[in-house]
Amino acid sequence: MSEQSFIAGGHRHRGNIAERMVHGLQQVMEHALDAEAQSARQGLLQQLDPRIKLLSLLAVLSAALLARQPGSLLLLLGLAVLLGQCSQISLRQLYRQAWLSVLLFSGVLAVPALFLVPGETLFSLPLLGWPVSRQGLYSAALLLGRAEVAASFALLLMLSTPWTHVLKAMRSLGVPVLLVALLGMTHRYVFVLLQTASQMFEARRSRMLAPASGRMARQLIASSSGVLLGKAFQLSSDVHLAMVSRGYRGDIYLLHSFHTRKRDWCALLLAVALPFLIVWTHA
């Protein structure tokens, strides 16, 4: 199983903490299967060479860093939505898997800028009296916009490309073997441990005659976490010895070969033009 993303959607599950954890683990693995199926569709991004998509992602990130106007970042977000629609990636997926989480995490970092950056006061917070400056609002908007653009295009790459192809493309572009091997093994065995944890909780729950109380559920999670940690150490040692004994040196070998076509070069040219266009518009 190849996995593209850890972010799962779905309905909020009611129950004790152990049941919610089992439900969450199942959601993550179901989401991984959905992401794998999505990367096999015949969309615009799915048909591009993974190496071109990686280079284009770097170009778009450079454009986001060079942008000094929120309007430029909005245009880049619009481009991400357009590419998603052409690649059978819905607006709902972008919202739930990238925009919402980035807004929550980056928003916490951006809020202090509203009050700490000096400048022209727009208004003051009721009760607290803290002044919100125009320059602070501008800085917070740029921070959130850049984070949203980066997350959107990274999500498009992950949903349109099998994870093994991303790793092989990274090696093709000269990314060090150690980093690629670290990413590949970490990503793979996070899901192996998720599956193991899900099976452990399901096995324990199938032997219970009545719903676990809150205290028992917490004890179950604590004991299962300890067992899972021990299994992780044992598994990492066994797998490393097995891979080294079979000649593994960190390179990714696949039966699938990359072929760069005319449309790939056109896509790369358009992506590389974005940073220059941003600089030209701000000049």
Automatic annotation (TrEMBL):
Membrane topology: Multi-pass membrane protein
Any GO BP: cobalt ion transport
Assigned GO CC terms: ATP-binding cassette (ABC) transporter complex
Keywords: Cell membrane, Membrane, Transmembrane, Transmembrane helix
Main location: membrane
Residue intervals passing through the bilayer: 73-91, 98-117, 173-196, 265-282
Subcellular location: Cell membrane
Family: Belongs to the CbiQ family.
Protein name per UniProt: Transmembrane component NikQ of energizing module of nickel ECF transporter
The organism of origin for this protein: Aquitalea magnusonii
